[in-house]
User: Fold these one by one.
Assistant:
Number 1:
Amino acid sequence: MAPVRSLLVSILGFLGASAAADPPPTTALGVWQPPPGLDQVRIWPGDAPDGTFRPQPPESVETYDDPGAPGGKSQAVLNIAVPTMTIVPAREPRTRAAVIVFPGGGFRKVFIDLEGIEICRWLTTRGITCIVSKYRAPGGNDFWDGELHRQVTPAIPRALQDAQRTIRLVRSKAAELGIDPHRIGVLGMSAGGYLVAQTSNILTPAYRAVDATDRVSSRPDFAVALYPGHICRDDGSFDPSLPVTKAAPPTFIAQAWDDATDPVCNSLMYAAALDKAGVSTEVHLFAKGGHAFALRHKDEPIGTWPHLVELWLRQIGMM
């Protein structure tokens, strides 16, 4: 995987003409707020377990000029210490399925619009309740040594803790949300795709139980990983901290061959490991699309991935 500092350049390349030509994002201190009418809920009853990686500034929001986004702006959240989930209700006719979305950001930030709220706008029009995870991504980040520019395995997987808790919380609120507790999936992009792989395979709690919600299963019923990272290490080896087992749910994977941020080996190696474990896996590799394509490039082959996901969800009985 390329150094995390390249992630911003890659994403800006899709949000505008080029990183050099685009104006820098504006940063404002304060807690990110969802669009009007949506509920943002804290996932922990008190402080999140294990604190943060190191003392950090308060939460802040970066705003980018983004011609492809509603309103021409897109946001990312930095220095998250209080993780939340934002619930986006399904439109009629409802399928009673739900998807928890883990946006990417290299575990340094969370691209909450491009890879979160916008994804939910698509899913909810298909009758799927959508939940955006704003997981902890402290500025020092748990996954990357910023000085040596190398990938590290976190001693305390805070993002995984938040991801597991969010799945449990959504499942525990299934009746309240009008969803089937056995039709809850996860969808993640880039670093979020790695969280998809983790939550699919690491079913042992990554934290000590804090309430009755933690007695609920954190296993997703289906999983969608888009341009995942962190699985294929710099030396070409498979991430040793990621066990892949037959307990993983049916999985859909999509990536572009020309992804310069997270090499396609991430998808190839993960798909091969799932297949070896006997897990039903669908893989789509596109010639072009780069990184962080999300719902952009609708008129190109890579823009067909949402339709392919819908066909796949029907095939596995989740829609």
Number 2:
Amino acid sequence: MQVALIDAGGANLGSVHYALERLGAAVRLVRSAEALHGATRVVLPGVGAAGEGMRRLRAQGLVAPLRALQVPLLGICLGMQLLYEHSDEDHSDGLGLLPGRVRRLAGGPALRVPHMGWNTLDSVAASPLLAGIAAGSPAYFVHSYAAPVSAVCIASCTHGESFAALVQSGRVAGAQFHPERSSAVGARLLSNFLQWNPT
């Protein structure tokens, strides 16, 4: 399994790299379109702001190649948000691989934003990516923005409001939580992704 790991400037790059290697994947860091060649899976992690993430992808010449990918793609945290058409953060356009708009979590008097820490996953739709992950399983989140629960959502989470925690459409998938920090649940998701063969 040849995994191309996109360097989008996120602090979680190293931990995602190690998590994939522990599952037996051959991982290479990608900072150019040419480095995508031969990959059988692509992972786009990210931590930070949407505008800066897209600027980095554009500077590396990766926007068009990511849009044209013919192999499974997994976005993680900010990487998942960049899969959408637009983010209210920085009023930034995303890759447009998933329909919809990423918005800031509303929060409230007893709800801190960013949403940080462990929270439970609620199943929304069946998917091979959820194999072995039961409803109510815990996952680790750190984010202030989130995508809505929509037709592409396969698992949701609630922090004052429901939002998409795991999404999938065709070959494109995304996790708002950090699988590299989510213990057995995160390892199972990454393993499922490595074995995933979407039609």
Number 3:
Amino acid sequence: MQRRFTLQALTAAVALAAAGLPAFAAEGTIKVGILHSLSGTMAISETVLKDTALMAIEEINAKGGVLGKKLEPVVVDPASNWPLFAEKTKQLLTQDKVAVIFGCWTSVSRKSVLPVVEELNGLLFYPVQYEGEELSKNVFYTGAAPNQQAIPAVEYLMSKDGGGAKRFVLLGTDYVYPRTTNKILRAFLKSKGIADADIMEEYTPFGHSDYQTIIAKVKKFSSEGKKTAVISTINGDSNVPFYKELGNAGLKAKDVPVVAFSVGEEELRGVDTKPLVGHLAAWNYFMSVKNPTNSEFTKKWGAYAKTKSIAGHKDKPLTNDPMEATYIGVHMWAQAVEKAKSTDTDKVIAAMAGQTFKAPSGFTATMDMKNHHLHKPVFIGEVKSDGQFNVVWKTPGPVKAKPWSPFIDGNDKKKDEPDGKSKT
């Protein structure tokens, strides 16, 4: 009887293969965790990353899965609650037995997850730009380090093409990413001869909605003689009232340009972007970049969003940088598992070194051989009236990440590869 069942299964698998359909292993699936806020202040940014991961998983399954097994997503909602990120991570690794986790947006959520994945030897793929100053063997960082976003953006603002800014407003949400990034930027600006008196620094809590007072202070600061630019590390749904107030106050890009590090196509969806034309964002990908790989990516996403009736995207599908980083991460992990012939964390980590993927940015994304970061291009885009971005500057090719910023004292002595527990 058992022999007959095996023969039937083999016959069915051959038939499926002949029909061009995936022939999954009879036993089990490979569970993968998706850890994104689907409620709370960060849902505006994170929900779509959950959907992007699900799309990538569906694509991989349609081509036969991984190691002949279907990927089974386990989706949890840590609800923009930072301690809950740690609890959900423990649940995914110990109860659900996932082989990998794709998730987090804010650095405070990643910092919450970090000790859990290290203790349990799990694997996290983190898809958002961040402040650097961290390296863990259990994390792959597919978003930008500061030298792949923040530093090039400020260099652009100081250049003739960027308006020759001499004064800077560092405006962020009050947590580790904005504060550390701005510590790096202060040191960088000081190295360029910018005095402390020409730097204004302000922070607001998550979910902050009243930007009238801060915008008034920015207007006053910018009226004191020198060309002023705003560097925004505001995260989550606070970006909507911030940009609305920017428009209400009549702060035009030609007078006081704002460059954002956490605002893309998705965050501008609920904003009248006509008054914001010319303001800037720095990323490693924009939906508007023109190349065949991106055309295919945006087309796939549009079809997927329509089929799944994804809120907001069914009629107006948008892609953005963290979506691209999520998509790259899921596919690279699958490639590494195939190379390792195992989902064992340590074997997959070894197989991730040097992995490549043809990215929607138009460049080949490469995982560094040592430092768990992608080599990525940098783009600076201007907001257009339709909420898209016109690329005004880009690097000639991918930039290697520097997790340890040279503008932080003592970083020259830190090793550019993870060994054991995270170094922060």
